[in-house]
Amino acid sequence: MKRKAFYGGTFDPVHCGHITIATSLLELFSLDEFIFLPAFHAPHKTDTKPTSGYHRFAMLMLASVNEPGIFVSTLELDHAEKRYSVDTLAEIVELDPDSEIFFVMGADSWMDIPTWRDWETVLLMTNHIVVTRPGYPISFDHVTDAVRSRIVDTRPSADAADVIRGGSSPLIYITNAVELDVSGTEIRDDVREDNRLDRADDVPPEVAKYIEKYELYR
Description:
With about 220 residues, the chain is α/β, with parallel strands linked by helices.
């Protein structure tokens, strides 16, 4: 059985932190594939309109083309509408019933999980991996006892693979194996303020060239 992780988000733009998460989780969780899943528009982000899906997909392809095991899916972009995780995961499971699926989210998303549509159903559909981010401490008080019983906190372990265990219910893994202080918001704001990309080291080189070529975020 193949093990596949799907990482949803706007990726506006994809940055080195995203790629490091992908390469690290591929190894730590013995994944066969890590798949970026750019959203047409994240339902919980109502204050901003993302860059066109075409540009975000192109930047993800440039960032991942030379990374073994990393792929980009257009599953959400193809719907061209706001789409909820419960619907996306249902489609993934239906299309690939023979693989073990993991859904990746950041600590900020985990803390907001009760606001997601059918959030308890979402957490029962697949395994989940929660990646900590600086400034977003992880807690478990905001979820139910049933959800807490399925949490595997790998943070004290040097190797997440050592604590992965099977079970009848999908599990929720918490990891701090990747903890990078970079965000798409900071990159966009930097370009907007200076009219150029000063934080080029925060994005893959080909993505930096793409941002400059198409004058994104100005």
